[in-house]
Amino acid sequence: MNLLLSTLLGLSILFTCIHAEVHYHEFVIEATPVKRLCKTHMRITVNGMYPGPTLEARNGDTMIIKAINHSPYNATLHWHGIRQTRTAWADGPEFVTQCPIRPGQSYTYRFTIEGQEGTLWWHAHSSWLRATVHGALIIYPKLGTSYPFPKPQRELPVLLGEWWKRDPISVLRQAQRTGAPPNISDAFTINGQPGDFFKCSSQETTVFPVSHGETAMLRVINAAMNNELFLSVAGHTMTVVAADAAYTKPFTTPFILLGPGQTTDVLISAPVHYPVGSRFYIAAHAYSAAPGIPFDNTTTTAIIEYSHPTAASPFDTNANVDAGSIGAVAPAADVNIEASTTATTATTSPPIPSISATIATTNRQIPSTIATTSVANPPVPLTVAPTATTNPSIPASTAPASSPSTENNYDNNNVNPASNIQSNKCAVPSNGNNNNNNGNGGNHNVLPPPLLPPLPAFNDTGAAAFFSAGIKSPGPVELPGPVTERLFFTVGLGLYFCPPSIRCGGPNNTIFAASMNNVSFVLPQTFSLLQAHHFKIPGVFTADFPPYPPIQFDYTGNNISRSLQSPVKATKLYQLKFGSVVEIVLQGTNIFAGEEHPMHLHGHEFYVLATGTGNFDPRWDVSKFNLVDPPLRNTIGVPARGWAVIRFEANNPGVWLMHCHIDAHLGVGLAMAFITENGFGELETIEPPPADLPVC
Hints:
With about 700 residues, the chain is mainly beta. The chain has 6 helices and 33 strands. It is globular.
């Protein structure tokens, strides 16, 4: 019997190894001319593409990506959401797990995807390069397995970005020089394009051709620098099926909300048979709950256009479709993948169809008014949201007990149940000369204007709470426990007083700051934190990050003492034993402005037990914890003047950054880092550093 079990186990491992692939890519980081908003600018890109190449792999595959830095800036790359089990050297944050790749140098990232599938992304993790250095990272199920929902025939990577007319690096440097918050962006983008409501932009607006009756999945990624974003699709219902590469209990919603760094997979459906030529806007704009804080109030759009079915049947998941064809089919569980979106790519097994297809653009004129499903003819350009959808009252805690329902009753008259859509390449040539490959060859100048969806108001906290409450795991989960580390971290903004005889750009002649537990995080410059930890180099950091605030106060009150507004600058880390079960209360503050903070943890995923408003009170709020089916995330929005509670197991040795994914906050210190010690044996020990690890 034991021999039989051993044989079966061996065959299972052999099957897995045979079908796992190694994907080789070369990423050239370089300055590229990019035309947006009527002007051509030099922007940093990967392989001349904005957004950058889409990476595709399966659960169990290995990625080897050589990054060559031909830009004038230091650079690193981060594979957002990848656990990096034992491979912290490949995680990427500058001066945390590696020194930067200097201009003219290179570094090869090597990691294996273990137990993950869904939508993630990659981006620069050095200065503000990620404004244009980012792309999708899509992980499909292993061969022989499938999605836990009806398999879509079409998959659309939808990257939400942010665009400045000025060089983003100069925007950052101005803020660093003056002490003021960075200037707000000039536009949001969908797959690199601002959309129809901006000058010189309508000819390149992203268009997704679809056919009636096809199931399609939008893989939505918020790659914006400093803004959470609401997104909606006119004339369609969205069913959320995954978030941050973790499957969720399906629920329908008229809109989704993503903080920077977060991803959401949705199936979209049409309530009726739309004829060929029907067009609908995908629209997105900011969510900003902090009163008085400037933000980009523009609306970006893309278009869903119903076209004739493509030559390759969307239901033939084994069809060999050219990667440049608009009808390219996303690989299902029984299809190989060809990572054809990079300059140089190879795999250890035969090439196979990619989800990638060229984004179609159309030559069309923008009408003087835009029809919408709920707003009568808003003017163009549209810089203010359509009227807010009404909603029921939302309780303070957004993590109610588990319920089997798959649909939320958010009041929106434009919601209908049903079906689906189709695949596009999210990376487009940065010069804007996209192929006018619109799926049906029609003249879009004579088509009617698309319908515009309603979006929640910019400050609709009820809508934000409604959406967050809908994200749950598909079923009961086995939470890590018992808890061995209970931590309480304040997260928020602050101010430093301006030195004498100097004029500073912050409020009332101050300098913008941010902190966790009153520590404003400072990156080292001589060694990375991981190098210092691994080689026991003294003087780079201290391991005394406070487990709770040094001073307790009314964190979300309106009249917080000025003596609390200036944090201590330091490089403090918190040490964890391998296997520790960590529960953290992330408490937002109102020292300067009670903004929402999307907190991202590297090297781990965590369960979100609850979120709520006001000050966390264990006497009452512990009873609100969802201990049945909490969602698994890598980034969580801590509500404005509110809190979130997360739990994870520290089972990945290395140094792992935890930070706000709003780069305007990260750059002034809203971060900390954990040291997870090695466990016992090779499988619980970090791998040795690679030979080509950059030096500081």
